[in-house]
Amino acid sequence: MTRYWIGVVSQEHVQRGVQGNFCQVCHGKQAPLKKMQPGDMLIYYSPRTSYPAGEALQEFTAMGQVQSAEPYQVEMWPDFHPYRKDVQYLDVNPVPIHSIKEQLEFTHGNWGFQLRKGHFEISKHDFDVIAQRMGLSPEHLGNTPDAQ
């Protein structure tokens, strides 16, 4: 069954992933990526424009569907070999979190703690709310299998 995920990544890094059709979360760690399977949906939340000290943004900035089953490692620099998965990104519009915060389940309580994790699962309800605001049609959402 399809699962739904948030990755917390700066806008600049999200754009690199979208251009390269890959995802990378939690500074390239393998473990979070192993949780995602082909067909799962990933939404990026960008707290800042760039890491570590870019301007505050606080927007959902990209969305895509996971394509690869296993994470793979790449060399970005001789001493940095992050893990990635292939993603097919959708054409969506950024959405400020504060414009929909009251409609989301994961923002109840201490939702900042969730964001600090860098990668976490969300409900189908939260996915649908975010996806609709990002511009996905109800028909597209209807074709996304429900999570159990």
TrEMBL record:
<dbReference type="Pfam" id="PF01878">
    <property type="entry name" value="EVE"/>
</dbReference>
<protein>
    <recommendedName>
        <fullName>UPF0310 protein DC3_27340</fullName>
    </recommendedName>
</protein>
<comment type="similarity">
    <text>Belongs to the UPF0310 family.</text>
</comment>
<dbReference type="InterPro" id="IPR002740">
    <property type="entry name" value="EVE_domain"/>
</dbReference>
<feature type="domain" description="EVE">
    <location>
        <begin position="3"/>
        <end position="132"/>
    </location>
</feature>
<dbReference type="InterPro" id="IPR022996">
    <property type="entry name" value="UPF0310"/>
</dbReference>
<dbReference type="InterPro" id="IPR015947">
    <property type="entry name" value="PUA-like_sf"/>
</dbReference>
